[in-house]
Specification:
Elements (H helix, E strand, L loop, with lengths): L1 H38 L8 E5 L5 H13 L2 E4 L10 H14 L17 E7 L7 H8 L7 E7 L9 H7 L4 E7 L5 H11 L2
Parallel strand pairs: 1-2, 1-3, 3-4, 4-5
Length: about 200
């Protein structure tokens, strides 16, 4: 009898654990689906701006693909004082700007930021985040209630490295982490945009 009760108890515990595991798994799946839906910005009928900073022209090529697919306006973020053509010098300046939490002055401005609902913001990854010119851009306008969708170009760093800064800089915006894009792979960028509703 003891043996029978022991087997019965073991079977009961195994079923209980399986049920809990299944419920936990379903809960995790449901949570991921909810997060994915929440991350999807509403794009239909929204006015789009594609703003980007590009040092070598790589990010610019990706921005042009996004502009073409979304029908948005294109805006190049440029510093008032251009960076050196010598890459090593640029990396040192960028490193110092990051350390100083600098806000380099920009050459141009968006004439009517209020008209845009969705702002794509593109940049190369410099020292594991966006260049500080992007921080200046973020400080220059009111992004409250807007959707900011990021995209980056990088030889190795993922876009997630820059996301905490982007969420801090673009105050009041719904910041949607985008993709690390490649200038020679427009098809991947277009597929990403299709998933966003463009």
């Amino acid at each position: 009898m003891k043996k029978f009760l022991s087997i019965l108890f073991t079977a009961f515990m195994a079923l209980s654990l399986t049920a809990c595991g299944g419920a936990a798994g379903q809960s995790a799946d449901t949570q991921q689906n909810a997060q994915a839906k929440q991350a999807q910005p509403q794009t239909e009928g929204k006015k789009v701006l594609v703003a980007y900073f590009s040092y070598t022209g790589t990010t610019e090529k990706v921005a042009q693909v996004i502009q073409s697919k979304t029908g948005g306006d294109l805006f190049k973020i440029e510093t008032a004082t251009p960076y050196s053509n010598v890459y090593r010098e640029v990396t040192e300046v960028a490193k110092q700007e990051k350390a100083d939490n600098a806000r380099p002055a920009l050459k141009n401005t968006v004439s009517d930021m209020a008209q845009y609902d969705v702002v794509f913001v593109g940049y190369p990854i410099w020292w594991y985040t966006a260049p500080m010119a992007i921080a200046t851009f973020a400080d220059s306008y009111d992004f409250s209630g807007k959707t900011v969708i990021t995209f980056c170009t990088s030889g190795g760093s993922p876009i997630s490295d820059s996301t905490p800064d982007m969420k801090t800089w673009f105050k009041g915006a719904n910041v949607v982490e985008g993709i690390r894009a490649y200038a020679n792979d427009a098809a991947s960028t277009e597929r990403w945009l299709e998933r966003l509703g463009y």
